[in-house]
Amino acid sequence: MTPMNKPFHRSAEPVTVALVDARYLRWLARQDEGQAHEGSAREGWNEGLRQMLARAGLRLQLLRTYWYADRDDQAVVDEQTLRLVPTADVDGVALVRQMASDLQALVAGGRVDAVCIASDDDRLMSSIETAKLAGVSVYLLADERAQSMPRLMQQDPTWARLLREADRRVLARSSEWAQTLSGRGPMVADEAVSDELDAALRQVVRAWWDDLVADDQDTLREELPGQRGLPPEVDRELLVRAKNALGRSLNFQEKRVLRSFARERATGVAAEPGAVVQDQE
Hints:
The chain is an alpha/beta fold. It is built from eleven helices and six strands.
């Protein structure tokens, strides 16, 4: 076989490329222009995205990030390409055109399995649909507002329509996006519990959730994204259930893991075992 005909070598994990609108990320992180430090934001981005994808159960190899911004931060960041758009591009036409062109080229090249898109511009919908028809998985990044799609359809219908086009929505709280954009990197998780205990705690959470009436489930889905912990009555019930299931009380770390699993079950935002949640001691 000649080099010209040699097939492209795929890695063991699906390959993804991220297309990131810097202004959209600042909006997710509740940051204004004065808070933004583009260079530090890019430095922490790749690792932060890898962690968020893993938490969502997506085992992907991040090949590169295309970062779309209206100013040159002069930073040199590995595995990133800065795409400059005109400062006067207030309606985002130039940015959407560039992002759509890059997405089309990536799909045509046939060397990516998935794309992660950070944008709320529904003018990308046709390019996203083309990518999906070509067999590329499309993941859109969002915050806790995307957990309640009926409400979002009323509050921000264009963003909601775009999010519905995705194969998966990768969600993180606004505080997590801010942490990543601060340049301090992603939030660090505590040490995980054993696989056996992990399974036992997840079973406790599943049984608790299945025992709730539909109205209580809906209330938790809506309210938990805006809270940093669990309601006291929920926390007490979970701790009692876990104690009965294990025959002992949970230690500090195990309680945090249990609470993390409960939030994950209720909100649909995946968390790694041991991920940091608000302490309730």
